[in-house]
Design goal:
14 helices
Length: 318
């Protein structure tokens, strides 16, 4: 295990330790006891819609990069990746496995990696944009600080763009990314829409968790808190998804007057609901284990015939 991996684990464990020391295990256990069949079913249904949107988004990007796959295969791979993300440290190992596996199956590892990278970037970009818009327009614990946060984000983007433009080392990468953007330009509207729908699903799952715990705040009060927690979940300092999510939820709920203990309980219940909703990934892992990779390669090559045609069209349009 590298030093950075140890730091991620220690950071996530440290956040949980501080929260449990300050708030105790009572709120978490009380929230978990309130989980019932209805909450599990509702969360799984909402998560399924988000998973389909995410898989469809990835499929659109992958097809334009010449490593396409069928929608059922994309959904299965996304369930597998989400399960691994929610059970392994860092929160990204499942997507890394998805990228490497698909790249190897299609015979183009670089394109497979870039397709998943663009898929993740599109999802995070839309989620961050929606969060900023909602936090700017709806009251939240960070509402007063949003102008400053917006300026900081704009400055970071400007510095990154300038460094990207002036550094000669990035010229090859710039050409490659520019080529990807041109090849995907026709599908970006659909990608952004699917990303927004996926974020709505994640927020819906968080609301289900809050209602399961017994939080009585209005939906308009809880949506900004959910988006804050989702942003914190993107920080790769966690233990199987736990850590920043619980810390952000405890702080946000406490600042909103709903109680830090309720925030901690909501985050814990959310984690369990997401884990259960991703259990179809176990079936995908079992399928992968029982069936030889060669058969999967044949299926993927057949799916890629359409992707090759789309890619040729993209080159012609460019």
């Amino acid at each position: 295990m590298t030093g950075w991996a140890r730091l991620r684990l220690l950071a996530g464990a440290g956040i949980l330790a501080v929260l449990l020391w300050r708030l105790g295990t009572g709120p978490v256990l009380a929230g978990l006891r309130r989980i019932d069949g209805w909450s599990l079913l509702a969360a799984s249904a909402v998560a399924a819609l988000s998973t389909v949107c995410s898989a469809w988004r990835w499929r659109l990007i992958a097809a334009r990069l010449g490593v396409g796959l069928s929608l059922p295969a994309a959904i299965a791979a996304c369930y597998r990746a989400q399960l691994l993300n929610s059970t392994l440290p860092g929160g990204v190992l499942g997507d890394l496995h998805r990228a490497v596996r698909h790249g190897r199956l299609t015979g183009d590892l670089a394109a497979g990696l870039r397709a998943v990278a663009w898929d993740r970037v599109a999802g995070q970009l839309v989620q961050g944009t929606l969060a900023v818009l909602v936090l700017f327009t709806i009251g939240s614990p960070v509402h007063s600080a949003m102008p400053l946060i917006g300026l900081v984000l704009a400055a970071v983007l400007l510095v990154g763009w300038l460094g990207y433009r002036v550094s000669p080392r990035t010229s090859r990468l710039a050409r490659l990314l520019g080529s990807d953007l041109r090849r995907c330009r026709e599908v970006w509207p659909a990608v952004l829409l699917l990303s927004a729908l996926a974020v709505v699903g994640h927020v819906g799952t968080f609301l289900i968790a809050a209602r399961t715990v017994g939080v009585t705040g209005s939906t308009s009060q809880l949506v900004p808190l959910a988006l804050l927690v989702l942003l914190a979940m993107a920080v790769p300092l966690n233990v199987a998804g736990w850590g920043p999510r619980e810390g952000a939820a405890a702080w946000a709920f406490g600042a909103a007057g709903l109680g830090a203990d309720r925030g901690l309980a909501t985050a814990a219940v959310y984690g369990v609901l997401v884990l259960v909703a991703n259990l179809p990934g176990v079936l995908v892992l079992a399928w992968d284990w029982w069936h030889p990779v060669r058969a999967s390669q044949q299926i993927t090559r057949a799916d890629n015939r359409f992707a090759e045609l789309v890619s040729m069209r993209g080159h012609a349009d460019g």
